[in-house]
Amino acid sequence: MRQPVISFHKIRHCQEYALCFPVKFEIIDCMRIAMLAPFEEPVPPKKYGGTELVIYNLITELVKMGHDVTLFGTGDAEVPCRLEAIFPASIRTLPPFDTDQKAREAVKWVGIGNVLRKLANEPFDIIHNHNGWRFLSVSSCVRRPIVTTLHGPMDQVYQQVVFSSSPDFAFISISDNQRVAYPTLQYVQTVYNGIDVSKFPFSEKAGGYLCLLGRFSPEKGVKEAIKIARMTGMPLKIAAKIDFVDRQFYESVKPEIDGRQIQFVGEISFEEKTDLLKNAYALLAPIQWEEPFGLNVIESMACGTPVVGTKRGSFPELIEQGKTGFLGTTAEELASFVSHIPMIKRLDCRKAVEERFTSTIMAEGYLQAYQRVLEKFGTGKNSV
């Protein structure tokens, strides 16, 4: 059997799992990995879905490396591995889950129960949880090592109650800043999200509009982006998903969308996204929260398009000031940076992603994390 040797680009500091590895070490050949996805979107997503795209990229790389991966997700997933369908289709756009928060919450718990039943007799080496606190809250009956990637903020008390309830829980942060809200968790390491750069066409020529990509929500800085566009006089294209929890916010902003300078193009496909990004002058990301990563940032940079964003959350880890974009604290400051965009070489943006944020680098980081969890807990973690 092939015994792969993985060369890691950077060994990161760990808090609770302070293990020292050489630059090269051997990993388990053909590791059996259970990948637990959220139920809202398919893997990969048809349109919006950062977490689901990351999961797809990770699965693709792990399979290429010779590992045996099983995805526990929805039946509309299209993945190069075994699929255990928890529901026939993703739930975000299905009635009543598209408008009823309680119904959506209830069906998520039904899904977790289905996952537990399917896991009961499966001989996995490790379970990689992308389903957050819900799965962990009932995971004591799972007799396999578990590692959880934290894809969102950790500022909610209910999350912290679950996350701190067992010394056996192991976590992966997607940025170092993400740990600030809860620094005492058992972090294995930070693994940045990665993309398949080959799927993002590079453009040396800047377009004539600004764009915003993500959710149509207050924390994503939609109002601030419109303000920046007004101050600079540049057109703004907003490509965003509107979830039912953000519908009221959308209605409050709608009068500012004139269809000329300020355009709302809706939730777009992957191909539409890359076209939007590569032809933009700059991506605006005036976030109003502690963004744990920001996949749109590296997607934009992969196309050669610089990012103008708020200096908070993970953004200082992703954007190099004056080289791949600009970071500021107010809409006025960000608007002033727009005129400096020609100083940035678009190729530098692309190279930054190729050097730090590829799917391969991400998968290597996760394999390192899996190894650390297995060495700490052994293959029989939670065994009776």
Automatic annotation (TrEMBL):
<dbReference type="InterPro" id="IPR001296">
    <property type="entry name" value="Glyco_trans_1"/>
</dbReference>
<feature type="domain" description="Glycosyl transferase family 1">
    <location>
        <begin position="209"/>
        <end position="331"/>
    </location>
</feature>
<dbReference type="Pfam" id="PF00534">
    <property type="entry name" value="Glycos_transf_1"/>
</dbReference>
<dbReference type="GO" id="GO:0016757">
    <property type="term" value="F:glycosyltransferase activity"/>
</dbReference>
<dbReference type="Pfam" id="PF13439">
    <property type="entry name" value="Glyco_transf_4"/>
</dbReference>
<dbReference type="InterPro" id="IPR028098">
    <property type="entry name" value="Glyco_trans_4-like_N"/>
</dbReference>
<feature type="domain" description="Glycosyltransferase subfamily 4-like N-terminal">
    <location>
        <begin position="48"/>
        <end position="160"/>
    </location>
</feature>
<protein>
    <submittedName>
        <fullName>Glycosyl transferase</fullName>
    </submittedName>
</protein>
<keyword id="KW-0808">Transferase</keyword>
